Amino acid sequence: MSDTALRRVGTTIRNKWTLERLLGAGGMAAVYVGVHRIGRRDALKILHPQAAQSKEICDRFEREAHAANRFRHPGAVEIRDIDVAEDGAPFLVMELLDGESLAERERRLGGVPLAEVLGFVAQVLDTLGAAHAQGIIHRDIKPANLYVVRGDSRGAPPSGGGERVKVLDFGLARIRQDSSLQGELTRMGIVLGTTPYMPPEQAKGRDIDARADLFAVGATMFRLLAGRHVHEASTDFDLLLKMGKEPAPPLARRAPHVPRDVCLVVDRALAFDRDQRYPDARQMLEDVRALLRGEPPPYASRLAEGLDLDAVTQPARPWPGAPDAVSASTTLQGSAPTALSASGPTHVDSIAVDWSDEPPTSIDSVTVEWSGPRAARREESIVVEWSEEPEGGPPGRR
């Protein structure tokens, strides 16, 4: 964590919130436990000084905060206020959560039981369905952005006694992935990006829709059930190419212990061609709820009749000479990934990749630009930070 973020601890902002403790810091912001002068404890997310220097970033931060605040749902974090600190850094005041992320739970327990995975995913899909109905795409669903709490300030937990999953960072992921802001962010030395949970179209910097979130939900299920990511590689560069070019391996090959009906749902969500995925969160939620009842998933089962399971995750137009998408090895629940650690590889400054319709035939046909503060110059490029932690950390106690 940066010295700048740590130096704020113990200070008071706007004569209201005393920053008691630093919860986490990412590339663009830091999250603190803040104690209001009336005694209420909140989570404060404060932009780093570098990001706060940009009026465009600050304006977008405020607009996205307003948009996220309009989305009210038990599965979303409540935004209570937005203000600007004395040094000019905008900040959000959010409800303080008491719990742990799914990434933390997986590390702590060495895996997450199937029944829990299905129950948590059902809640996430319910939240995403409501968000998508309002035109909000999350863009960064991953275990570290799914926070497990016991109830919340706005309602009882599911079934009156279970755990509630909160989806973190609604609205803020859009800022990190806005191509119009990437140049300014990298010029200021702020390296942002996403994780191995994004779909191929997002990895290539192309337009996305709500089905990108469904792919990320499938990738999250894959990680929790197989103990490894959908794609793994020894270098960031190779991993980026795999995410954009190779289909997801069928879950059954990586986790043969997982029931076939569950594999059908995960494989459908991870289809390389988004037109072959679930059409919306509601349809996927119906299938997950069927699994929770011990019934076959109606949508995935109907589409899988007479279909090779491998076909679900294959690209619509496979390129000649492509490497095998999967290996013969399998990994059981809770085992460590073979190529990447749970926290992923360390970030690189930037990678600019030419995503043509045909695959590269050699390394010379891929344009790579390693840059420090400069922005990547190719039109279809992304700046990548491989991190398992949410941007700035969760607004929760630890």
UniProtKB/TrEMBL annotation:
Stored SMART domains: S_TKc (SM00220)
Molecular function terms from GO: ATP binding; protein serine/threonine kinase activity
Classification via SUPFAM superfamilies: Protein kinase-like (PK-like) (SSF56112)
Region spans: Disordered: 317-398
Domain Protein kinase: residue ranges: 17-292
UniProt keyword annotations, A-Z: ATP-binding, Kinase, Nucleotide-binding, Transferase
Biased composition (Polar residues): 327-344
Record-linked Gene3D superfamilies: Phosphorylase Kinase, domain 1, Transferase(Phosphotransferase) domain 1
PANTHER family in UniProt: MITOGEN-ACTIVATED PROTEIN KINASE KINASE KINASE 20-RELATED, SERINE_THREONINE-PROTEIN KINASE NEKL-3
Protein name stated in the entry: Protein kinase domain-containing protein
